[in-house]
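sanity check this fold:
=====
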Amino acid sequence: MGNFVSQRNESVTATNVTPQQLLQAVKGFIAETVTPALSDRDQFNARVAANVIGIVQRELALGPALSALDNAAFSKWIPDGAPDKDVVPQISQAIAKRTIEPDTAFLDYLKQRQLLLSAINNPRYANRAAAAEKWRYLDTDTHSATDTR
């Protein structure tokens, strides 16, 4: 795999390799070297593995924005919650208990959250592009993901 990295980018050294570059090298190795050498079910599983690496790459890139969005929503709508615990289940419970008013600002948060989640999990999902266009007033450009499949 070391040769695979050096074939792609001669300027990469052991001291300046980022996690994204490592993941991309493994993903490229699976997609370009391993998958073609396999057949049937193993080839399918190798493609799934490469796609999982793509999800991890997008999570690394967009996860901090998603966490910041959730933490801001938590602070705004659940001021008496427990910030040391996972905030998403607390927001979900507040929705279920109807302690959050479904006003425009909260609905915008939910839309932004969905766009970020779909950018991480499946940026090529057909309805994601339609939703991003419809909700473009939410400044979704900051939440777009490069499709790294």
